[in-house]
Amino acid sequence: MVTAFEFDKYLENSKEDSYRIHQDEKNYSSLRTFLLIFSIVTGFITITTFFDGSIDYDSYSNFAAFVVSLLIRIFYTRIFTVESIRRKIFILFVTALILFLLSTIFQNIIEKDKPVEENKAKVEKLKKIADEEIDVTVEQKKTDTTTIVIFFSLALIFFRFPKNDLIQLYSLAIGLPVLTDLIFFQNFGITGKIPMLVTTLLCFVISYSSENKRHKKFNREYDVYFKRHSETIRMKKELDYAREIQLSMLPESTKIIGDLQIAATSLPASEVGGDYYDYFNINDDLTGIFICDVSGHGVASALLLSGLRSCMHLILEDTSNPKEVFVKLNRMVRRTQNRKMFVTAVFAVIDTKNNKCTLFNAGHLPPYKISGESHELFKVKRHGITLGAVDNFISDDEDNLVTFDFKKGDKLLLYTDGIIEAMDDVKNEYGFTRLEDFLYKNTSSTPSDLLDGLIKDVNKFSDGAEQVDDISILVLSRN
C-alpha cells in the first residue's frame, strides 16, 4: 500500500507514467526477492542430491541454475535499474525459458543414448527395495515440459506487467514448451496436459485480474491525492520552471576567451538556488569572473540573484574596478530588499596584457590560485564585508583590493560553501583540508577535468547523503 507521503512523488507525472513507475519499483523489489528464494531452493536441492549420491543430469542443471541466480542476485544493482527493470525481466524470462527447454531437449538426447540394460538394472533395484512385483517395460523415454510450464506460470505471479505484456508472457510460457513437446518429443497426448493447462489458465486469471484491480486502485488514489494536492503540484511545476529559467541565465559551462579557459557549474540544492556565477569579456585585455552566494536558497534568493545579474552587466559598462563594482552592488542590495539578506561574492579581473589579477572578496570563501610554474597552491585570504550588511560598505582607510601575478599556466578557483559544507551520512564536512588535498593532487589538470574531478570527489565523500546547500564552482586557467 502506498502512503500519502510516498504518493507525492508520483503526482509530478501523468497518471499512466506514475503507474508505470510504481509498478517498476515493485518489480525491482520483487525480482530481488524471487532470485533470493530461487537461489535458496535450487541450492538446497543441489546439496541434497550431492549428499544422497544420486547425481544425474538434473543435478547438474539445478547446480547451474543455482550458480546463475546467485550471481545475478550478487550483482543485482549493477545489472538492473528501476527504469529498465520491466524490459530486463521480460528478456530474463524468455532467456530462462529457452535455456530450460534446451536443457530438456539435451537431456532427452542423453536418455535416448543410454543402454537398455542400464535402465533395466535401475528398475530391478527398485523392485528389490519395494519388495513387490513390478512389471518392467523399457522403451525410448519421452520427456514432456509440463513442469517448466507450471514453474514459469507460477513465477509470473510474482511480477507486475501491463495486460498486453501478461498475454505475451503467458503465451510464451505455454506456447514454446508445447511446441517443444510436439516437435522434439512427439508427445501428442492431450490428457496429460490438462493439469498444466488448468494451472496456467488459473495463474493467468490471477495475474490479469490482480493487475486490473491494482491499476484501478492506483488511479483512484492518484485522483484523490491529485485533487487534494493540486495547488502544491501547481507550485512545484512553477518552481521547476523557475529553476529552468535560473539555470538558463547562467553562461556556458565552458568558454575560451583569448588565452583564458573557463569551466564552471552550478548545482542548486532545491528547485531554485542562491548561487550564481558569470564571466565577462570586458575588452581585449581584461576578463572578469564573478561568483556569489545569497544567504539561504529558494525563491527569495533567486529573485535577488536575478537583480544582481542585471546590475553586474550595467555596472561593468561604467567601471571594471572590483572595489567600485561591489560598492554599487552593495547599494543595490541595501535599497531593493527589506529582508536582511546578505550576499557573499568574489569579482576578479584578469589583465592578460600585464599578467595581473585584481580581486575583491566581499565576505566570500577564499579563492585559490595554482601556480603554473611551481604547482604551488595559494589561498587568497584577504576579504571585505558581506554585501548588504551595512550601508557604508568600505571605509576610506580600508583597502581589501588584492592584486597578484597571473601568468601563463596559472589557475584560479572560485567556489561556494556548498563544497566545503558537503556532508557524509554521519555529518562530517568535506572541509578545506580535503579541498586543498584534491587541488594539490590535480594542479596540472585542465579546468574541465579539475571541475569534474572535484564534483566527483565531493559526491564520493557524501556517498549519497542529501545535498544541503547549493554548489557552484568556477575554474579559470591561462594557457
General description of the model:
It contains 15 helices and eleven strands. The chain has helices spanning 4-7, 15-52, 57-74, 76-79, 85-113, 116-130, 146-155, 163-184, 194-228, 230-249, 299-315, 322-336, 417-420, 431-441, 447-462; strands at residues 254-257, 260-267, 275-281, 286-294, 343-351, 356-362, 368-370, 377-379, 402-405, 411-415, 471-478. The strands form two sheets. It has a six-stranded antiparallel sheet with strand order 1-2-11-10-7-8. A five-stranded antiparallel sheet has the order 3-4-5-6-9, covered by helices on one side. β1 (254-257) and β2 (260-267) form a beta hairpin.
Overall number of structural domains: 2
Radius of gyration: 35 Å
CATH architecture of the largest domain: 4-Layer Sandwich
CATH superfamily of the largest domain: PPM-type phosphatase domain
Q: Segments where pLDDT lies below 50 for 5+ residues?
A: 133-142
CATH class categorisation of the largest domain: Alpha Beta
Shape: elongated
Give the class from helix and strand content and strand pairing.
alpha+beta
**How many alpha or pi helices?**
15
What name does the CATH topology of the largest domain carry? Phosphatase 2c, domain 1
Classify the beta-strand content into a percent band. 5-15%
